[in-house]
Recover the amino acids of this structure.
């Protein structure tokens, strides 16, 4: 039997082990913490315990694994971390015994002159008790070591090793510091992996059965029998706000003979009074003196009796908005009671609240409740002259109600980037409210669909939605329902915006063509609701850099590129960008600017008429790439214009000296290129000389 099992239900099992054929020895358990290992041990017989207290304990530690590798020479890895560990001398116990009740018991078990559990009335019983005194001391010593870390340490049954490394695994061995030849005591050992952690769970399946000023608490110990050695039962008298232990000492299960399961523990507690709600919870205590998580809380009310005679409610009906209750009570038992009390609850399980401020006369058999709720459960309590009461069975009265609750209001909510929606609203104040139903839609134009399977009690709700959609908005409405299932109007819709993780839909380029000296780009408009604008980029073949031509308005779907050169090939990339900065997949178009042999006309021409110098001067600017030269055309008077002179490409000026006074001259310029291309004729310039 492991030491955990040995200590599970307190000293009663230890006494049973005394009579077994097991050889005397030491049992040890360990618990790893973040920075230490706690060791707890005990002797398997009363005599072994007494001898070990005199000889002392020695703790040896062997490093078995290091960095995941087996330590081959175990003897070289052994160290002694504690030696000659004995109980404290009596004079050191006084201070701690005053603070710790378990330490006081342990000190008495070690050093008390007598340690009897009863005062036997016969010599035979006295002899039997004296023979069992050694076992009693041993049993209670080990039990107190389970409940108190201080008691275990002071008795030399607990050690904390703070010199561990988390990347090592150990074998701890505890031996008697000095062996006895006539009574050898076996050593105890335990293997510990400091990296392992044990969470202390709450006790399971806690139930409460309430009686007359009493309650039976029961819980299942099957799953935790290797963790907890005892339990604490706590009670709350203030609606579960604060809990206090019901006993000064921890509870070690003693199962009744009628218990159906050996894994169910029972605890009987007396209640200060009936007709009051009491709350209970159970907490496990390990052999290391640690308390686990509390169990779920159970509650109930003690049921009193007045000679076992109860009232019987015969009538409960609505009269002009009030509730009229009538009951019967045996007339021959009226002499045994002081009167009646009427109590009401919203559930047959209570809690019931008394309605009368003073006891109703024993001859009274009716009561009018002027403030009933929509659903009422009434009980009549007969108050005996001995202070005990009996309570009738609950009687339900449900008032007629056709008025729905008001619509929920002040809805608000948010959506996380994981698609989790949380919404909340102001709670309704109707006393007969049963809860709410939540509805959802992707558009205000479509029907809202209920998304709550059942009525929810609290004014908040969590939902999960998909973010991989082009629909940015989602809408919620809430309806309130009362106990009669009257439904309120819909709340005003709550509009929430999904976090934008979906880029806009691509806009395919449907036209890309060269027209003269321009390139026309036209595309299909983007269908995304949150479109901000388009961005059009251009690559020139042979150049890896990308040029942002323009941010195009979301209302436009065409662009004319005038900054192109004939004969060159361009790649265009169009993306749609939304309000969140996300961009669509690009649409690509490749266009070659067709060379028609026509270049742009010379536009910037300056003129000067110099009559004193008898000349006309023309000046202009024009790109010189591939240029062969310039042609000057001239017309005199009303004659047709003709080619007049050719100008070299490195010159941008023409001086005309062949002039006649009082004559009109018309000029035009044209650029000609080496590849045979020509610019368009410039605008005609008319000058009077």
């Amino acid at each position: 039997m492991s030491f955990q099992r040995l200590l599970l239900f307190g000293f009663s099992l230890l006494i049973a082990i005394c009579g077994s054929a097991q050889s005397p020895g030491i049992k040890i358990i360990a618990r790893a913490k973040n920075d230490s290992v706690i060791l707890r041990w005990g002797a398997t017989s009363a005599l072994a315990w007494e001898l070990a207290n005199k000889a002392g304990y020695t703790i040896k530690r062997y490093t078995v694994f290091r960095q995941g590798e087996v330590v081959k020479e175990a003897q070289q890895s052994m160290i002694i971390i504690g030696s000659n560990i004995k109980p404290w001398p009596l004079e050191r116990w006084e201070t701690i015994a005053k603070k710790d009740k378990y330490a006081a018991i342990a000190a008495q078990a070690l050093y008390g002159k007598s340690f009897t559990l009863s005062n036997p009335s016969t010599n035979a019983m006295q002899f039997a008790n004296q023979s069992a005194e050694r076992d009693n001391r041993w049993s209670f010593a080990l039990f107190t070591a389970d409940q108190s870390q201080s008691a275990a340490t002071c008795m030399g049954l607990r050690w904390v090793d703070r010199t561990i490394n988390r990347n090592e695994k150990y074998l701890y061995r505890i031996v008697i510091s000095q062996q006895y030849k006539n009574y050898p005591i076996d050593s105890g050992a335990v293997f510990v992996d400091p990296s392992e952690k044990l969470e202390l769970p709450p006790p399971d399946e806690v139930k409460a059965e309430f009686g007359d000023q009493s309650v039976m608490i029961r819980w299942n110990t099957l799953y935790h029998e290797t963790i907890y050695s005892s339990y604490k039962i706590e009670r709350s008298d203030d609606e579960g706000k604060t809990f206090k232990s019901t006993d000064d000492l921890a509870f070690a299960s003693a199962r009744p003979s009628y218990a159906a399961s050996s894994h169910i523990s029972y605890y009987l507690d007396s209640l200060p009074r009936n007709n009051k709600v009491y709350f209970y919870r159970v907490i496990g205590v390990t052999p290391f003196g640690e308390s686990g998580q509390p169990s779920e809380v159970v509650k109930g009310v003690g049921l009193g009796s007045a000679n076992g005679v109860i009232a019987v409610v015969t009538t409960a009906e609505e009269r002009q908005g009030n509730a009229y209750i009538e009951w019967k009570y045996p007339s021959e038992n009226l002499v045994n009671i002081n009167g009646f009390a009427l109590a009401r609850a919203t559930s047959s399980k209570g809690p019931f609240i008394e309605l009368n401020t003073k006891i109703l006369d024993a001859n009274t058999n009716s009561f009018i409740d002027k403030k009933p709720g929509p659903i009422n459960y009434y009980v009549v309590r007969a108050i005996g002259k001995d202070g005990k009461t009996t309570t009738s069975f609950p009687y339900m009265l449900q008032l007629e109600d056709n008025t729905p609750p008001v619509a929920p209001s002040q809805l608000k909510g948010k959506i996380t980037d994981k698609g989790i929606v949380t919404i909340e609203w102001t709670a309704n104040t109707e006393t007969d409210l049963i809860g709410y139903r939540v509805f959802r839609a992707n558009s205000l134009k479509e029907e809202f669909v209920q998304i709550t399977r059942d009525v929810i009690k609290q004014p908040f709700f969590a939902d999960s939605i998909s973010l991989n959609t082009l629909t940015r908005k989602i809408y919620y409405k809430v309806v309130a329902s009362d106990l009669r299932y009257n439904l309120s109007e819909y709340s005003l819709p709550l509009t929430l915006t999904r976090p934008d993780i979906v880029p806009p839909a691509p806009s395919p380029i449907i036209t890309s063509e060269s027209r003269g000296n321009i390139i026309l780009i036209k595309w299909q408009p983007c269908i995304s609701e949150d479109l901000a604008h388009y961005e059009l980029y251009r690559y020139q073949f042979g150049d890896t850099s990308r040029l942002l031509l323009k941010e195009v308005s979301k209302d436009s779907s065409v662009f004319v590129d005038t900054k192109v050169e004939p004969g060159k090939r361009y790649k265009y990339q169009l993306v749609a960008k939304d309000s969140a900065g996300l961009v669509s997949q690009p649409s690509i178009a490749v266009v070659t600017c067709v060379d028609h042999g026509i270049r742009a006309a010379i536009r910037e021409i300056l003129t000067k008429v110099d009559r004193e110098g008898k000349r006309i001067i023309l000046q202009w600017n024009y790109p010189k790439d591939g240029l062969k030269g310039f042609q000057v055309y001239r017309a005199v008077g009303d004659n047709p214009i003709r080619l007049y002179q050719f100008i070299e490409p490195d010159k941008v000026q023409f001086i005309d000296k062949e002039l006649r006074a009082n004559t009109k001259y018309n000029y035009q310029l044209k650029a000609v290129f080496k590849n045979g291309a020509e610019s368009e004729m410039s605008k005609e310039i008319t000058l009077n000389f």
